[in-house]
Records
---
Amino acid sequence: MVLLEAMPFRIKVSLSILLAFIALLVIGPFLLPVSPLKDTQPEADLADSDSLFMNQDGIDIHYRDTDLHEAGGPELEDPLVLLHGYLFNTDSFRDLQPALARNGRVLSFDRPGFGLTERPERTSLVGGHNPYSPEGHVEVTRAFLDGLDIGEAVVFGHSSGAVTALELALTHPDRVSALILAAPAVSGAGSGPGWLQPVLKSPQMNRVGPLLMRQLAGDPGGGFLSANWGDPERIDDAAAEAFHRNFTVDGWDRGLWEISRASHDVTFLDRLGEITQPVLVLSGALDTIVPSEDSRELAGRLPDATYALLDSCGHAIHEECPDETAELVADWLADENLLIPAGEAR
């Protein structure tokens, strides 16, 4: 107190302002009113005719299961599982899934934090991990396969879903017979500078974080969608509706915030040589999010990878160019002997 009284008035004012600012940063977030989300519904109320749900490891997982194979044609030896990227969901595979299902069973599911899968508490561990973390997404994928009694699968991952697919192949190699990586967001993926993590996990940010996520439902979200397409003019109503599905579910803001809190840099890049399964890496020449050079470099670091470039596609390859993607995948599956020829028994 004597020290404060001895300070010049100018310094005392400056110190008072600084202390007030610190107090505002510490206490202010708790004073912000958090209004409830509007116009949202429970997951089950938003389901459509081909929606399916399973409760696996304590989480209600929304998925789609499609098999349009006809006798007389080549058939998938193992089911094909589709993993969407950040701010996408199973609806983004609306065209690709049935196209691929002409060769057999194809499944897709909403990863925690997206679509119609339950937004659990982050303390609801799956395989010992926070379900919103990168490791948690791997374990939810493993649990999904377990729930359907699928031993091995061909795993297709788009963007951050490709990161999950790669890590699944490393942590559970016996569950993955092959990988298809579309615009894999491996280089530069993660949570930003290390100093940011304590901030993201602070009680203050835990309160205001969901409010920040709500901005994605407005103009910033539209900008995100446009950035994923090589030609935004090709975004139709179905694509827009698929994207906005993420913002119609109860608690979607908290789910996206939990994804942000739990994210971290990829830690397995020095282990890519351990992935011995055949891999197809797909890239869009118009992709401004994951440049094609990065995807080509990733393919070069994998022991058994094929790289393909789609000239007229952006980052959302599976949505903008579903027919070309399905054709490339089907040809590659045949080349890698992952299709059972017509007339041969399983």
---
Amino acid sequence: MATHILMPALSPTMTEGKLAKWLKKEGDAVESGEVLCEIETDKATMEFEAADDGILGKILVAEGTEGVTVNRPIAVLLAEGEDASAGDGLATEGVAKPGPGAVSEVRSVELTGSQPSVGGTEKVAGPTTGDKGGRVFASPLARRIAKDAGLDIAQLQGSGPRGRVVKADVEKAKAGGGAAKAAAPAQAAPQQAAPQPAAKPAPAQAKLLPDQPVTEFPNSGMRKVIARRLMEAKQSIPHFYLTIDVELDRLMALRADLNARPGADYKLSVNDFIIKAVALALRKVPAANAMWTDEAILRFDNVDVSVAVSTDGGLITPVVRNADQKGLATISNEIKALAKKARDGKLQPQEFQGGGFTVSNLGMYGIREFSAIINPPQSCILAVGAGEQRAVVKDGAVHVATVMSCTLSVDHRSVDGAIGAEFLAALKPLLQDPLQLML
């Protein structure tokens, strides 16, 4: 029985993506769990696995195609023994938009440009079945067989990738008679027409001089999302800024000593010390490890620190989980591995979603001080500048010390000025006396 293979939603915020590469060609046999193609989302390039066995009968979307919307058919899957003509009757231009009953509410955690927001609900278009009220992940073929057999697919246990219900699960239920019969669809309640939003003014267009030469670099999906989210963050979050100066001489000496030890399988950077110190400071001042919602201020139980990494496609923030519980060498090696995956476009969603606090370091570029834009729904981001020799006064005398400026951007809705100051007061001694990081 020929069925469509649909463009998947590979992240909570994905609405469209680029079909980067087909790894199977027309006529190839496909097994459940095999990788069919690579899909480029607004965050990374990810592999898409087949949910059912069959033959790849026809490719509907060529590789390299951008702007492929979620749930659009991208290929036709044939059952064993079926001829390619069996898929001719299937639509190739798209599928009907899901109605009100096909929208489910999912708990999401969505961060600007790279992570999901925690604590809100987000409407996600997708098929829903049964009366559970939640989204059921199942292949089109499994849905069709279940419908023909009168089975409630929402009651089936999926054995496919990420718990997806596949053909074998439905056939097992048919043989065992263990699935509940599908209930008759409830009469849809009449819905009041939603008010139409006021028309937004058209965005200003860039104007060029008649013969002004330019080179065009098309915006990637990732770049568009970053631009939109950061604009929303700057416009909707009441930022305020707190700056401290930190003396780094002890930290630099300890770093040099640790890196010089024979047989070391690490190479510590200043940023590794900063991440560890930030994590311990958040453990001391948990009120800074928080996010704002209209109903409540939510504090993260774990200390998960996002680290800004620059890539060719834009900024992304992989997360060091439970950074307060890890040693410097572990943090260093983990960050290097995550940064490489980020630049290669291979980060998985769980590696860049869900952080509670972000560190952005431009010190390696010689930037003395800057103010960063908060990464929603987080409440704080620490902007770290370069360590440089400056004149400091100690006991009435002028000395030369290596000094680094750090600026904390804070969401005033969820973190008050006093809490921000307490956090920086906890952070500063950890960096100036880094032996405390070893305790």
